UniProtKB/TrEMBL annotation:
It catalyses: Preferential cleavage: (Ac)2-L-Lys-D-Ala-|-D-Ala. Also transpeptidation of peptidyl-alanyl moieties that are N-acyl substituents of D-alanine; [GlcNAc-(1->4)-Mur2Ac(oyl-L-Ala-gamma-D-Glu-L-Lys-D-Ala-D-Ala)](n)-di-trans,octa-cis-undecaprenyl diphosphate + beta-D-GlcNAc-(1->4)-Mur2Ac(oyl-L-Ala-gamma-D-Glu-L-Lys-D-Ala-D-Ala)-di-trans,octa-cis-undecaprenyl diphosphate = [GlcNAc-(1->4)-Mur2Ac(oyl-L-Ala-gamma-D-Glu-L-Lys-D-Ala-D-Ala)](n+1)-di-trans,octa-cis-undecaprenyl diphosphate + di-trans,octa-cis-undecaprenyl diphosphate + H(+). In the N-terminal section; belongs to the glycosyltransferase 51 family. In the C-terminal section; belongs to the transpeptidase family. GO terms for biological process: cell wall organization; peptidoglycan biosynthetic process; proteolysis; regulation of cell shape. Signal peptide: none annotated. GO terms for cellular component: outer membrane-bounded periplasmic space; plasma membrane. Keywords: Carboxypeptidase, Cell membrane, Cell shape, Cell wall biogenesis/degradation, Glycosyltransferase, Hydrolase, Membrane, Multifunctional enzyme, Peptidoglycan synthesis, Protease, Transferase. Residues 64-238 form the Glycosyl transferase family domain. Its main location: membrane. The keyword Transferase applies. It comes from the Bacteria. It comes from Alicyclobacillus tolerans. InterPro entries: Beta-lactam/transpept-like, Glyco_trans_51, Glycosyltr_51/Transpeptidase, Lysozyme-like_dom_sf, PBP_transglycosylase, PCN-bd_Tpept. This is Penicillin-binding protein, 1A family. It is found in: Cell membrane.
Amino acid sequence: MLLHSFSLPKMRKPNRKTLILMVAWPLLAGFTGTALLLFGLRATPLPEDSLSDPTEIEAADGTRIASWSWTANTERHVPLSEIPKALQEATLAVEDAHFYHHRAFSLPSLGRALLVDIKSGHVVEGGSTITQQLAKNLFLSQQRTLSRKIREALYAIQLEMHESKDTILNQYLNVIYYGHGAYGVDAAAETYFGKPVEELNLAESAMIAGLPRGPAIFSPIEHPAAAKERQRIVLDRMVACHYITWQQANAAFNQPLHYATHHIPLHQAPYFTTTVMEELAHRYHLSSDELYRGGTKVMTTLDPLLQQAAERAIRSTLPANSSLQAALVALDPQTGAIRAMVGGRSYMTSPYNRVFAERQPGSTFKPLLYTTALEQHWSPARQINSELTTFVAGIGANALYTVHDYGDFYAGRPLTLREALARSDNIYAVSTNLAVNPSQVVATAHRMGITTHLGSVPSLALGVYPTSPLQMATAYATLANGGKRVEPYAVEEVRSATQNEDIHANPTAKQVISPQVAFQMADLMRSVMQPGGTGYSVSHYLNGPVAAKTGTTDTDAWMVGFTPNLVCAVWVGYDDNRPLNLMESHLASPIWAKFMSTAQLHMPYSWYSPPSGLITRQIDPLSGKLATDKCGRTETDYFQPGTEPVESCPLHPHPQTPVQKLTRGLLPWLRHWFGG
């Protein structure tokens, strides 16, 4: 096969003049462009204000409840002359050793940092200069885009053109983020060591200088081992830069550090805001440091008016100059959205959130018990005698269990479920618990929202197993919303500069008890606030019907209750579990009632209508039978079919006619002869 040959056309060799133009023109254009760029940057003033977007946390109505950025959180601007030389040198050594020798960028630092990071397997040092970091913090958001990096470089060049090196270092030390909400070295010194920056020694300075690279990773409060390792790296770099000797470095490393124990105040609703940040970390995987660095918008579930009402109710009720504590949490029962939260009387004094503290709920557990009974077709008209009772519950020496009512005060007569709930009768509760099987009560409580351990024992009925106010509010929400279990949450939406899309909460509700049983319990619990009920003394605060239950142990006072659109749990007690006196044991109720009074006006509602499948009967509570027109006191109850009473009250019978008397006399004779 014959292949046709071919050849490329010959290229004409360029002459000398052409070669010079080919080389010189790009260089000339590049130099000209660079010169024009630098001239433009020099002529353009730096932005007067920071362009960095703060992180903002907003209430449900858009009200800002917290905001974090360096401009909002810097304690004070400290002149460079007042910042310890050890802290300046430690910062230069670990962040930008060539700071005073470069113009905005440092190729040696970039290369060294890359090698160190590769060797360590994670980011230990960064290549950005102090000038670049300052530009980013002053003028840019936290978005990780190419355009932002370009603007960062341009702003860094401008900073070097407009400001001296000392000014740039001073500004950097006053605005950089050091973790736990501290922007600037003065805030960092107060946060970690409880002292002004001027008083920091070499060991403390090295610890603080190591934080900006990873405030969450190297926090000495949360990760002391990692912080200590980072301090060693800083001291080693100071030695390498000839700022200190090895002997000084070792002495500083071995010097004990004493960290501050006070806490930085948050803007508003501090217990709630802290909960928001924890939820962002665990549910949305956003660390506190990402939030503090800015660029995130968080929409929460908080209702500012209800939050103010909660804080006011606790403040106006707890005695002054006392270590008595209180917690309040309010939820939307339809979704689980947290509308108000107070975790203690003072966040500054104690940031521990008692909404999550596990304490004995006492008689507030009884609605969960009676929910189990109603699920087993227990009749609200069923009566149990209220008197000192010893139960046999098992075999052996511990088989006997004697139950006392509060103050050893007993009705001395049979009680219906409604009256037993209103009076918080313990005999009725333990009798019911044993009758329905304690293990079934445990299962019901867990279905409704209790997550702590519960034992299948007779005393379970009296709320002896600790649980938290938030769990009790969740369980009561199941009764308030028609039998659906909801999960409490505080974050409604997140818009983050580091996320590709907005994140929205997706509340769920799972039907765990029937609407009929939920309605029965809500109706029965109204009696707690009526004459003879344990909550009646605070009923004058209220502006409409509520369902509620009080609870008291030797160390804890509770009140939990709801309307159709809000459920609230209140706890009062001492952190050290010391016993409450008589006055203190009654403080949860007024806190709850004061708060709910405001909520009722703020969130109007209509009371529940009975669902289909229930039968309404009017009974005499003294007999538990159908009321007659001779009964002086009656109650209206709702029954599942087959559980309603069918006989008339024998204590208040109608007068009999002669025919009724004759029929009544013949009935025994007819039964004797004909059976039946």
